[in-house]
From TrEMBL:
GO molecular function: peptidoglycan beta-N-acetylmuramidase activity
Residue ranges of every copy of the Peptidoglycan beta-N-acetylmuramidase NamZ N-terminal domain listed in the record: 62-261
Location of the Peptidoglycan beta-N-acetylmuramidase NamZ C-terminal domain: 267-406
Organism field: Sphingobacterium cellulitidis
InterPro entries in the record: NamZ, NamZ_C, NamZ_N
Protein name: DUF1343 domain-containing protein
Length: 410
């Protein structure tokens, strides 16, 4: 671990880097803040804090659940490269939905493979893996380091649950290197309560916009005994420094091909429901999750034509056709919070509403309930719909408060 001091110095340099900075006050004076102010506000993800977790790995065989978001320091060096250089006995990597390097499309098969850069054996937990028990049994400790985006249907938190299941089953320690939730300033949407809607995109009985970091969620999974047979995982969470749930966090590395910037991440929870329809959210364009449209001029004057882009070629709604709708690219990302206004607007404008929910079953899984779809069809307003989920949401918020590591949003 001869380079621990070097990386501690790099963490110190983060105090003056732009990577992962908070943006609490967009109207603040443009003059440079004093050093103490920078120290208080600069977010330092757990992976950058090598002295906090490298000693926990000494003399142990280690497995990693990671991907392209598992980076260290201002140069965004992959955690795998850092661990290997620090002589950590890294045995394998697990990859989530979009693969180890983040270049696999949504829903596509993630195969067992070898990391081309390091030769590290790679395995998938997405969709299950018949070898997963023996893989985890071969190590002493697992590391989880994935950047979540704060929405229940983002499948990285499903991967967290599966890793926790395996660690609990085989009595292995799990170290979660925590990262900020870029939408952690809100808790909203319906709570999934019926197991018939449980799926990869709605795995936990949590709010649609859950307001947790992965470390906080891991504590909740353990504390509520959601693992099989009520087991609990031997869990260590290395916390983020200088993060609160009021913090705005612009991700240093995109979490998946269709979320290329801060605005797309902030709009994701509101627009992902469209994936239960044939409405385009801009996949196959340069602006995924920043535009919305369909092949009918009734939806608006703004037009775009989806094609094929890296990571967005096989599941592209409206491909090759002119789509009419909304241009959201000029919105202030930090001000975006979960809303039903877009889905209600497009439903109300659709000439033949019977065709709107083209994939009704998947829409219900995204929502975690069939009530939302039925309320939209019944012509309920957003205010009426919100009132219907308030009791369950209030109960969830009370449960959530027990597992918070970081100060709550105001």
């Amino acid at each position: 671990m001869g380079n621990i001091l070097l990386y501690s110095a790099i963490v110190g340099l983060l105090l003056t880097s732009a990577c992962g900075s908070t943006k609490k006050n967009a109207s603040a004076p443009s003059s440079a803040p004093d050093v103490e102010s920078v120290k208080q506000e600069t977010i330092i993800p757990a992976a950058d804090q090598l002295t906090a977790y490298l000693p926990l790995l000494k003399g142990k065989k280690v497995g990693l659940m990671g991907n392209q978001t598992s980076v260290v320091g201002p140069q965004n060096e992959h955690l795998v490269d850092v661990l290997l250089r620090e002589k950590v006995d890294l045995k394998f990597g697990f990859a989530p939905e979009h693969g180890f390097r983040g270049d696999i499309e949504r829903g596509e098969k993630v195969s067992n493979d070898v990391d081309s850069k390091t030769g590290l054996p790679l395995f998938t937990l997405y969709g299950g893996n018949e070898k997963q028990d023996s893989i985890v049994q071969s190590v002493d400790v697992m590391i989880f380091d994935l950047q979540d985006v704060g929405a229940r249907f983002y499948t990285y938190i499903t991967s967290l649950h599966r890793v926790m299941e395996l660690c609990a089953k085989h009595n292995k320690e799990l170290i979660v290197l925590d990262r900020p939730n870029p939408c952690g300033d809100q808790v909203d949407g319906p709570v999934r309560k019926d197991d018939k809607f449980k799926s990869n995109v709605s795995y936990h009985k949590i709010a649609m916009v859950h307001g947790l970091t992965v470390g906080e969620l891991a504590k909740m999974i353990n504390g509520e005994k959601w693992l099989e047979n009520g087991r609990q995982c031997k869990l260590t969470v290395v916390p983020v420094q200088n993060y609160t749930h009021d913090s705005m966090y612009d991700l240093p590395v995109i979490p998946s091909p269709s979320l290329p910037n801060h605005l797309s991440v902030r709009l994701y929870s509101s627009l992902c429901l469209f994936e239960g329809t044939d409405i385009s959210v801009g996949r196959g364009t340069d602006w995924p999750f920043q535009v919305v449209g369909f092949t009918d001029p009734v939806y608006g004057d703004f037009t775009f034509t989806p094609g094929e882009k890296a990571g967005m070629s096989k599941h592209v709604e409206g491909k090759g056709a002119i789509n009419y709708g909304l241009d959201l690219r000029g919105l202030d990302a930090d001000k975006q919070k979960f809303t039903l206004k877009y889905i209600l607007d497009f439903y109300n404008k659709m000439p033949d509403k019977s065709k709107f929910f083209a994939r009704a079953e998947f829409f219900d899984k995204l929502a975690g309930t069939d009530e939302l779809r039925k309320q939209i069809i019944a012509g309920k307003t957003e205010e009426e719909i919100r009132a219907s989920w308030k009791p369950e949401l209030d109960s969830y918020k009370k449960m959530r408060s027990k597992y918070l590591i970081y100060p709550e949003f105001k």
